[in-house]
Specification:
By secondary structure, this protein is of the alpha/beta class. The chain has one domain: Luciferase-like domain (TIM Barrel), CATH 3.20.20. Helices cover 41% and strands 14% of the residues. It has an eight-stranded parallel barrel with strand order 1-2-3-4-5-6-7-9, surrounded by eight helices. Helix 9 links the parallel strand 7 and strand 8. Helix 1 packs parallel to helix 11. The longest helix has 19 residues.
Length: 349
Amino acid sequence: MTVPLSVLDLAPTSTGRTRKQALDDSLRLAQTVEQSGYNRYWMAEHHGSATFMSSATALLLGRAAEHTSTIRVGSGGVMLPNHAPLMVAEYYGTLATIYGDRVDLGLGRAPGTDPVTAAELRRGGSDLNDFAADVLKLTNFFSGSDSVGVDEGVSGAQASVLGLSVSPSRFHRTVRAIPGEGTNVPLWMLGSSTGGAHVAAELGLPFSFASHFAPQQMSAALQTYRSRFKADADTAQVEKPTVMAGVNIMVAETEREAQYQATTHKKMQGQLRFGATGPLQEPTWDMVETWSNPGIDPTHIIGTPDTVAQKINEFVEAFSLDEVIVSCYAFDPAVREKALTDLAKEWNN
């Protein structure tokens, strides 16, 4: 087909399986999709969920990177208001220092959780101006531009380790992300509305739109991003507007089997709609419906490998996409692995 495919994983757990097994399933998935030729393996930050085990995203990505060798690994994304930009730069800069140019950093504004848990995360400002300022800090930390100047002293940590008493006037006058500075970790802006598109355009960053769960504003967001894109921004990382979009898929040997396996995802959506979380549930035949929608619904692309690949290709052409990131939910982890493997085989033919 025409563009690269990537995979988004939230480390879901299934009824009857432990949380440790869910994390091991995700590691195996990273290895499987690397072997299948996918471009990226991304994980998304979620907190307080009994469904998704991907809260400590940087740790899980480090594990995935350690057990793969070629596929890009990254966040899809880090919810930046949950974290100090310095900490994000240190975590992902450490990953880039160890694993080289395989690490991506996708950034979002949402909390990735419920309001009560969000308060415990001590979130910072999430309006567009605060968010853009934090993204700018990140780019400076990664480039090392915040550490330009004369280094006139030692850090408080160094003084403590050495047992020294140091005058405040002798402390560093700059803040540095070490390791991290000089790694220039590639940034992606995530969004499900025109807000994220505007920030991505102003900063000259590639944009990943969350069409897999919020397709309603996709046309408006992409129009905003492409029309306002500033290739000459100081923070620009791509020369022209670059768009990735998400789709949810289920692939099986027959249309009916794919519909059956997809009922697990439909049950999960029903739970989340009412604010409930829990492990993925077994698929059931009583929920199977004939997929007769003639349009393209990125929240549910279900069928045989050839029909799913064709629908994704139509989606790419309709929105002039540069990349597609795929999510797949299945009660049995082996079903998820096979679905993604079979899709890759069809896509790469």
